[in-house]
Every structure is written in structure tokens, then in C-alpha cells.
Amino acid sequence: MLFERPCAIVDLETTGGHISRDRVTEVGVILIDGERVERFDMLVNPGQPIPPFIEQITGISDAMVADAPPFADIAAQLLDKLRGRLLIAHNVRFDYGFLKNEFKRLNLPFRSEVLCTVKLSRLLYPQHFKHSLDSIIARHGIVQTERHRALADADALYQFLQQAIAEHGQQQVEAQAALLMAEPAAPPGIDSEVVEQLPDVPGVYSFYGDDGQALYVGRSDNLRRRVLAHFGAEPRPHKDVRIGQPIKRIEWQETVGDFGAQLQELQLIRALQPLHNLRGRLSQELCSLQLTPLDSGFLTPRIVLASEVDFSRLDTLYGLFRSQKEAKKALADLCAGNGLCQTCLALEKRGARKGACSAFALGRCKGACIGREDADSHNQRLQQALSRLKLQSWPYPGAVAVRETDPVSGQWQEHLFERWCYLGSRSEEGAVPQGAPTFDADTYKLLAAFLRKPLPDAELRVL
């Protein structure tokens, strides 16, 4: 006997790892009722090409599934076998998510209690670092006829569970399983079905309060894990945002990759103005520093506002600040840290007697204010101090696209930019419209960081 209740150990082979875009190619199920064990295995025609990468791993080719039934033809039979059982799988969110989506496309409701053998292995064998199926097979000496075939992998899990019960006892294994099967701590007022539907894919999520007001917008490479972390169902990230108001609605948007998630997060924050987001809000006083020559030959930084000049077309700007106050503070820090003259930098008005600035008396100015340092020397030190703040010039003749591609399914999405301004996105499903292009600090920083260090599965295309 494995557990006191009817169980189904399930393994699926698929065209890829995205539960919305990809499809099932093989189903392997072991049904356990006390001492009675039934095995069920079937190839499935996914209705889309199997990527070469997946074929290499599983050995399942387009030719093998060409005459196999589509999921719709086996759905009723499979649903009848799974209904009312504890569903067990390795990384169960993957298999359960795929099954739910496949049934949902056919308007067949499916819900089951689930048990993840990855997490169960971590609880039962904490002394081991790795808990992948390959690691478990090697560690427990499990005999397997084929790897990465549905029924063979399900049988490996069956052998693992039998060995775990033999080593730890039925009561201990069931007690640990019960801990893992506890319902996620979704907030009051949120339908548990919403929690069930959260996908394990990259994307952006938003929380809403009683009156429909957006409370918070976030992003993650795993939406389900990140959203549940807010409610204590998963480990809470360090310095996570704490939301005091009741959350009444959760929405999310899937993306192909992390760059798109970061970009969409910025767009949503600006559109929704959520109460608990500070980063990403458009600044009404976005400004920078621009060097201006004085009649005396000295260069002085002046504050220029993005509302007055087009930052996307200037190549002589230093720093991005959300207010003039922030810009003045940065300039004062720059002055103090580099021995620059406060009078020459217009941080201090020159008195009628044209004496030394206050920094000179403290030994923090080399005397440009009283003629002890010439303009060329002071200008050179000023430009050197500002160099680390210089905004990067647009390095392309026109627009570019950051193209993200799912390495398995081949699905792609492109995000278009010109002179640091976001123009919109497009994918196989169509284009995402964007309003009039405007320069903003967060989009500039996101794209500039990508140009310095591109993300995996993303490339830059010059249009």
C-alpha cells in the first residue's frame, strides 16, 4: 500500500515548458488503489511541431505522434481515471498545470489535490542537495527501462515512494505529505481557483483593493511562486513589499522572458499608479545636468528638465534625477567629493567682494573662486567627476528591437525602441500598441543595462 487513499502517479511529456503555449505529447499514469496497481500510457498528437530539442530529450518525434489521438479524444477516459485521486508528480505544478489547461480547452473542469515528490524528497532526505528525478534515480538505485518517457518516469516515482515508506515508515511519509498538501494561504476574498490558475512562467502581476484601486504591481520569472510569496505560502523574499490593505483581485500577464516582464511592469505601474509602488512612476520633474560655459571660461552644470528639452536627442547630459532637489544634492556631493568650487558650480552665490567659497575655508576647494585654479584645470576635473554620470548616447542609426525567444517552443516577442523611447511590442499573436514615445529614466536604465549585458534567450536586432 502506498497511501490510504486512491492515488495517481502522473508524468507527461510535452512540446515544451510553457503550460499555455505548449501541448502534451505523452501521458503516463500509475493508478494505485491499496494493493491494486493499474498502468496507463498513451502517445498524444499535440497538434503542433515537436521542437528538435525536445525530440532529442524524449525520443518522441512528429512521426511517432502523427497517428496518435489528440488530447480531446482521450480526455474523457483520462478524466475518469484521475477523478477523486491524489495526483502525484515530480514538480507537480508542471504536470497538473498542463492537465488543467488541456481539460480547460475542452470545457472540462478538473481539480485535484496534488503532491510534489521534489518537495517530498527534500523533506524526507534533507541531507541531500539535489532532488531532480535523475538524482533520485541514482541515489536510490532505481531501475528504469527508459528515461524521459512518461510511464517509465512515473514508475521511477512509484519505486521512490515505496523505498521512502520502507525507510521512514508509512506514518512519517504521510505526515510530510500532509504538510505539503496544505492549501496555499490565499488572502480572504480571493477565489481558490485563482490561486490554482497561477502559472509557473515569467510575467507581471497586479493586486487590487476593495474599490478597484491598484495596490501593487510586480514581476517574476515564476508568477505562481512570486505571488504566493506575498501571502506566506512560499518563502518570503528579503525586503518584500508589505501590503496593508485587503487584496480583492489578482490579475497577471504572461511574457516570453524576463526583459518583457520588466518592461511590462514599468508600463503597468505608470498606467495604474499603484499605492505601494514607488519605482517606475513617471516623474513630473525628471531632470539632468548639462554643462554650460560662463564668460569667465568656467563650465557650470545647469539643471535641464525633460519637459523642456528632448532627452532622447541630447548627447551631453549627466545623470537622471526625479527632482531638481535630487539633482542639486547629487551636484553638491560631487563637488564635496572632488574638491570642486561651489561658486563655479552655482551651488553658492558669489558675494559682492568675490571672496572664496565656503568650501575653500574647509580645504575642499582648490581656489578656483579666488583665482588659485584656472578654468581649464577646474573644467577638466569637473568633466572627469561627471563622466560616471554621463548618459549613454543612442548608438544606432534608427530603431532596434529586443527579441526574446522561448528556447524550447520557439515562441518570440519583440520590444521596439528608438533613442531610448519604448515604441511598443509585437509577437506572433500581433502587436501591442503604445502611446506617443516619451523618454523616461526607468526605460533608459532597463535598455542601457541590457545593452551592457544581454539577458539569456534575448538578442538585439537593428531595424
TrEMBL record:
Gene3D superfamilies: GIY-YIG endonuclease (3.40.1440.10), Ribonuclease H-like superfamily/Ribonuclease H (3.30.420.10). GO terms for molecular function: exonuclease activity. InterPro entries: DnaQ, GIY-YIG_endonuc, GIY-YIG_endonuc_sf, GIY-YIG_UvrC_Cho, Ribonucl_H, RNaseH-like_sf, RNaseH_sf. Its EC number is 2.7.7.7. SMART domains: EXOIII, GIYc. It catalyses: DNA(n) + a 2'-deoxyribonucleoside 5'-triphosphate = DNA(n+1) + diphosphate. It is an enzyme of class 2 (transferase). Keywords: Exonuclease, Hydrolase, Nuclease. Pfam families: GIY-YIG, RNase_T. The keyword DNA-binding does not apply. Residues 200-278 form the GIY-YIG domain. It comes from the Bacteria. PANTHER family: DNA POLYMERASE III SUBUNIT EPSILON, EXODEOXYRIBONUCLEASE 10. This is DNA-directed DNA polymerase.
